[in-house]
Amino acid sequence: MSNKKPISRKRLDWIDQSKGLAILGIIIFHFFQNYPDRIDLVNILDRNGAKWGYAAVDIFFVIAGFNTSYTLAASIKSGKITSLKINWIEWLRKRIIRLYPNYWLAIILSIILLTVWGTINIKSFQDLIFMGIGVPGYQRFKTLNPGFWFFSVILQAYLITPIIFLICKGKAKNILLLGIVIGTIWKIVCITNTGDPYFFIFLLQSNLITSYIFPLCLGLYWGFIYCDYQKFRRIDWEVSIAAFSIGLVMYGFLVLSQIDFEYMIGFDMLFTPLFLLLFYWVCETYINPKLTFKDFNLFSLMGVYSYQIYLIHQPLLFVALPILGGKIALNSYPRVLLAIIAIAILITLYVFVFIQLDNFLGKLMGKITKKSA
Q1: I want to staple 224 with a disulfide (CB 3.0 to 4.6 A). Which of 8, 79, 172, 350 is the partner?
Q2: Nearest to residue 151, comparing CAs of 219, 113, 187, 104?
Q3: Measured between alpha carbons, how far is 290 from 283 in angstroms, rounded to an integer?
Q4: Each residue of 72-114: pLDDT tens digit?
Q5: In the 3-class helix/strand/coil scheme, how is 57-105 assigned residue by residue?
Q6: Has UniProt tagged this entry with the keyword Mitochondrion (predicted)?
């Protein structure tokens, strides 16, 4: 890595804002996916929102990789660590401490929510144990909260990151190449298993880190690059635009040919780089300077707590939307608008309570692990 520019140690606002935009897009998609009145507008937004939802999830994995390598590269440049001799055990310990309390709290609150207002579909105590461990998101574990797949896959991402660095010897280009190769091979594996629709979807998305290995490695690569230049380079834009253009041509051909296909079959690899750069551009050009008021930015705040929001928002939608659909006595479109406002308020209150409990559990978990260390 070069030493062209000094490293800025302040928090990168565009990272939080990008996550805030991504989680907002996912919530909107899930809202229309679960809204009970299947009017034309809802159907259109549900059907097309799925693609935005997939793209937003990819952004989370790019950023997870980016944060990891950017922090490590900055520490190397500042002399805090030498080469890439990192204490990976300690690195994993900190992330597990951050992940599990949120996840367990989400399980508890999901059970309470569905016990009071919905139906719990946990079939056995064994299923509950597996869910608590965070095994890949088999369908029977998703019945409580479909969002739990994200915990499982992000946990896998953290567990394999040290292995990626070991295999690639900490070289940014090798990491990117590894992501491209494994990502491509995995798409081929998925395509060859289309005979069983459930197994095909299981392999393709929301269960194994192999489905998101490319965005993770892309983020690891770009973390090193951004640490060197404190911006994305012209070549990053050029290659990303070229890949997107290829994907767009292929995408258009399949649509015009009326060939059924899944977004995750390759298009995520071609589109994700440019999507991340566009998120960066929007945040740096419009959100950060124009939508920040006295150091407060809603998208930044949503980004900081995006992991928590992802884990808990879906059960609330399962419970609240059917109730709202029956209570709001208005015409279809005003009812949708009022339901959006009501859900926004409920999610805000729910997340606030969750965060308070989460902060308490996080501190408690930290004290326990320090004593046992």
Answers
A1: 172
A2: 104
A3: 10
A4: 888 877 766 665 578 889 889 888 888 888 888 888 888 888 8
A5: HHHHHHHHHHHHHHHHHHHHHHCCCCCCCCCHHHHHHHHHHHHHHHHHH
A6: no
User: Is 6 inside a domain boundary?
Assistant: no
> Whole-model pTM above 0.85?
yes
Total count of domains within the chain:
1
Burial of 183 (0-12, 13-18, 19+ CB in 10 A): buried
- Domain carrying residue 52: 13-372
Residue 220 and residue 203: Cα distance in Å, rounded? 23
Would 8 be classed as within a structural domain? Answer: no
In the three-class reduction of DSSP (H, G, I as helix; E, B as strand; rest coil), residue 121 is classed as coil
Q: Which residues pair with 293 in a beta bridge?
A: 296
Indicate whether 173 pLDDT > 60.
yes
DSSP for residue 122: -
Let me know if residue 191 belongs to a domain.
yes
Give the residues across from 280 on adjacent strands: none
**340: which DSSP letter?**
H
The partner residues of 296 in beta bridges, in order of sequence, read: 293
